[in-house]
Structures are given as C-alpha cells and as structure tokens.
Amino acid sequence: MPLIINGEEQKVAAKTLADLLSALDYDGEWLATAVNGELVHREDRADFTLGERDRIEILSPMQGG
Amino acid sequence: MPTLYDSKIRSRLLLGTARYPSPAILADAVRRSKAEIVTVSLRRETAGGKAGDAFFELIRDLSVRVLPNTAGCHSVREAVLTAKMAREVFRTDWIKLEVIGHHDTLQPDVFGLVEAARILTGEGFQVFPYTTDDLVVAERLIEAGCRVLMPWCAPIGSAMGAANPMALRSFRAHFPDIPLIVDAGIGRPSHAAGVMEFGYDAVLLNTAVAGAGDPAAMAEAFALAIDAGRLAHEAVPLEPRDMAVPSTPVIGKAVFS
User: Residue B53's pLDDT is what?
Assistant: First the structure.
C-alpha cells in the first residue's frame, strides 16, 4: 500500500500503524506518530488502520533551543 | 526563587541543547551551567527511532527537566500538533510555544501565538510562549492562560543582547507577578547579567553557549553572570545620573591656598 512516510512515498505491506512501525524497524521507545495531521497515541497504534496515501509522521527527540 | 507553573526552580538559567560540537560537550555544558531545565525538540526520525533514543537517554542521564519546543512551526496548526506530539514523547505538559512569523528575523507570529496558546492551555498544556516585548500581546497571552512569559531581547541567535532595554524594563514593570524569562538574543554573560538586573526571573540560552569556543566554560560564566545580575537587582542598583557626584566626601577637605 502506498503511504507518505515522513514526506517520502513508500510501499509497505502494513494494515495498522503499529504494523508499519514494526515493518520499518522503528523500535525506539521515544516516538510520536501522527496520521494525516492528527496525533495517534502510542496505545492506539495497534488499532489504527491505515489507508492508501495516508500521510504519516514519525517524530523522535532531538536537540532544541 | 521563581515558580514556573507547578515547579520552583533554583537555577535561573534554562539551557538549549542544540548546536554543540558533540554530545559529550553538551552534557558537560549542562552540568557546569547547573541548569535544571533544558529545551528539546522533535524531528522526523530516520533511524528506526534509535537516533532520538540515543539523544534522549543522554538528556535523561543529566537528571534535568525537559521543556519541549515547537521550533520551526510557522502556523497554529503545526504548532498545536507538534505540541501534542511532544507531550506524547516527553510526557510533560510543559511546552515552549514558538509560532514563527518571519523567516529572516524568526520573529514570532504573535497573532498565531495567542491563538495556539489558547488552544493548548484549553487542552491542559502549561505554555511558555516565545514572544516579543509587546505589552498588549503579553496581556493577550495571559488571558489565553499563560502563566509564564518569554520575551525576546533580540532575534534568535543574533547574540546582540537587549536591543530595546526600555521595552524590557517596561515589560518587567507591567507584569510584576508573572515569571519572566528572556528567551533569545543573548550573546554574552554581560547581556544576561544586564537583563537580570532589570528584574527578570531567568534567562533561556542556547547559541551563546553552544557556539562559544569552550561551551562548558561559557555555560558556567553565564550561570555566574545570571546569579550576579539577580543579586544586583535584589540589592537595588543606583539609577544613572546626568551630573557627577563625588564619591569622596568634600567636608573636611584641606585648603592649601
């Protein structure tokens, strides 16, 4: 299924957001996810079903001022 | 000592974590600054979550409280979503709210800032707004629920120090009971001491420390200057005068002619 992940189009065989993170080897503890501009909480990822061309943002901590 | 929402702070220096030459130097600078609060950010993760984890583990080892920011956000929608994602990651209601309005000056979009502050306080966030020294905007931010204000003293990263000292003094006088943190524009410890002499509660720094030749030493220099400026404020400095006033008493002076 084509998805836009952090701004780049990728084809990934994943039905849910949790599946997607697993398929892409995102195993970091400190991640936040949003789909189509809305936050998806950590505990909701397993039940969140993805659709074609969903825009997914996967963010993690970094240095900031 | 000032109280920032639910927290009393002992260190009046808040330190940013960006632009250091290495993680080890960042850690050293935080330790020598004695900062209790450091700012952090969120960005797209490209290494399976491992880059973010490595950075955040370093921060956690420093036993400091984090203040996540919404740096780089140019719209209310972006800032609000970033704040929510920051709360998800960092597990704090604190958010340093930035809504940037101008690419060159990084001046806040104060209209978007007030709107975003209202939305976020309504959702339980404790907002630290990066704002200008405009008094009316500050009043709107307080009406929106902000209990801390963070005016700039000059553009972010400019290192020029207080560009408009009169405005900063007015700001302090106008909001005697709100914790005020100067955020952005400080370049040298003397600049920080200067705004602390005005009565500001704290200073938030990043580039001035991270970009110094010896960031850790500069962090300590800022900590000393900030404490000195605060102590000077509490000691009530003299106001400038137009005319000379002899410091040595003239009474009893010998007359030789």
Answer: 87
CB spacing of B50 vs A28 below 8 angstroms: yes
Task: Name the residue in chain A with its Cα closest to that of B157.
Answer: A65
Question: What is the value of pTM for the model shown?
Answer: 0.94
Residue written as token pair 């702070």? B9
Put simply, the answer to whether A28 touches B53 (Cβ < 8 Å) is yes
Note the pLDDT tens digit of each residue in B102-120: 998 999 999 999 999 999 9
Alpha-carbon distance B131 to B115, whole Å? 13
Subunit contact A6:B45, Cβ cutoff 8 A: yes
Written as six digits, the tokens of B8 are 């009393």
Q: Is B50 on the interface with A (CB under 8 A)?
A: yes
- pLDDT tens by residue, B55-104: 999 999 999 999 999 999 999 999 999 999 999 999 999 999 999 999 98
The yes-or-no verdict on residue B46 having pLDDT over 90 is no
A 10 A CB-CB count for B157 gives 16
Interfacial A residues in 1-20 facing B (CB < 8 Å) = 6-7
Read off the DSSP letter of residue B176. T
Closest CA to B175 of B212, B213, B113, B129: B129
Element holding B128 (H helix, E strand): strand B126-131
Name the minimum distance, in Å, from the CA of A37 to any CA of chain B.
7
Query: How confident is the model at residue B202, as a pLDDT?
Result: 98
- Residue B130 bridge partners (DSSP): B150
Does the CB of B84 have a partner CB in chain A at under 8 Å?
yes
Q: 3-state class of A44 per DSSP?
A: helix
| Of B151, B215, B212, nearest in space to B184 by CA | B151
Catalytic residue IDs of B:
96
Contact A32 B89 (CB under 8 A): yes
